[in-house]
């Protein structure tokens, strides 16, 4: 029941927040909308902690570059992952599936933030890369890349896409990696919401000038293998909590 109540809480509060944001879409810049979405993200994190007993912890925030372009690559397990972007990053850009641009209000926010719409089924995302890289460097902003392409269930092996490798090789900008256990608490499917700690672990930049094979192996170690370790830690913590209450 906790999981059902949480999802209802999320849907209702997000809907109200997005409705209140609508007048801000008339602003000349993204800033009013962006920072109010950030406020909602931190509101939700606080509610998860105080109401549902799920803490959200960010480790390694000092590893995020300031005032420079970089590629932010993360394990993608949960809806929560998207909100962490607005919570911690300056206005960023990303390749976003075009279906999200059709959602009322949300689509307006994505366009206002100048995110790039892609048709994943057409297989043409690579054609957007030169334009994306040019925007990232010119605006000195993060480019968000989920190498798995979509949300992945914890424990499931998904072949990582090599876009981050080619982007950093062509643009010579740093790649920041992020591991998380968010899917254990807020899974793609299912209504479970065990008590415990959602962790986002932000690492130092990837080594420069790796060949493709070495880059992809290091990327997997950082965002996939480390995420599985964080999930195992969360499972152990949940079991310990249950045992202490029995």
Short description, anyone?
By secondary structure, the chain is an alpha/beta fold. It is 47% helix and 15% strand. It has one domain: Glycerol-3-phosphate (1)-acyltransferase (3-Layer(aba) Sandwich), CATH 3.40.1130.
CATH architecture: 3-Layer(aba) Sandwich
CATH class: Alpha Beta
**How much helical structure, as a percent, in the residues?**
40-55%
Largest sheet: 7 strands, mixed
What's the overall geometry?
globular
Number of domains: 1
| SSE succession | HHEEHEHEHEHEHEH
Q: Strand pairing plus helix content: what structural class?
A: alpha/beta
Please give the count of helices: 8
Average pLDDT for all residues: 86
Number of strands: 7
Strand content: 5-15%
Radius of gyration: 18 Å
Question: Could you please describe the fold and organization of this structure?
Answer:
It is a single chain. The protein has 246 residues and is of the alpha/beta class. It has a single domain, classed as Glycerol-3-phosphate (1)-acyltransferase (3-Layer(aba) Sandwich), CATH 3.40.1130. It is built from eight helices and seven strands, in the order H-H-E-E-H-E-H-E-H-E-H-E-H-E-H. It has helices at 2-21, 31-52, 80-88, 106-112, 129-139, 163-171, 182-185, 212-245; strands at 54-59, 70-74, 93-97, 116-118, 142-145, 175-180, 196-202. Strands 1-7-6-2-5-3-4 form a seven-stranded mixed sheet. Strand 3, helix 4 and strand 4 (116-118) form a beta-alpha-beta unit. The radius of gyration is 18 Å and the shape is globular.
């Amino acid at each position: 029941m906790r999981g059902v109540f949480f999802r209802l809480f999320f849907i209702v509060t997000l809907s109200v927040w997005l409705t209140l944001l609508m007048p801000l879409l008339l602003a000349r810049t993204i800033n009013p909308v962006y920072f109010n979405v950030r406020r909602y993200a931190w509101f939700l994190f606080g509610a998860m902690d105080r109401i549902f007993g799920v803490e959200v912890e960010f480790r390694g925030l000092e590893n995020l570059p300031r005032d420079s372009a970089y590629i932010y690559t993360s394990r993608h397990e949960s809806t929560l992952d998207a909100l962490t972007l607005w919570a911690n990053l300056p206005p960023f850009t990303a390749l976003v599936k075009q279906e999200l641009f059709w959602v009322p209000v949300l689509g307006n926010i994505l366009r206002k933030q100048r995110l790039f719409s892609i048709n994943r089924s057409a297989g043409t995302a690579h054609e957007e890369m030169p334009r994306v890289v040019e925007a990232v460097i010119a605006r000195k902003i993060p480019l968000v890349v989920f190498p798995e392409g979509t949300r992945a269930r914890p424990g499931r092996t998904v072949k990582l896409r090599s876009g981050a490798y080619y982007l950093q090789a062509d643009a010579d900008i740093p790649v920041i990696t992020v591991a998380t256990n968010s899917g254990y608490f807020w899974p793609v499917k299912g209504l479970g919401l065990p008590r415990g700690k959602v962790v986002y672990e932000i690492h130092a930049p990837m080594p420069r000038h790796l060949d493709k094979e070495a880059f992809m192996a290091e990327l997997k170690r950082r965002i996939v293998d480390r995420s599985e370790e964080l999930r195992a830690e969360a499972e152990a913590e949940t079991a310990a909590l249950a045992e202490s209450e029995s």
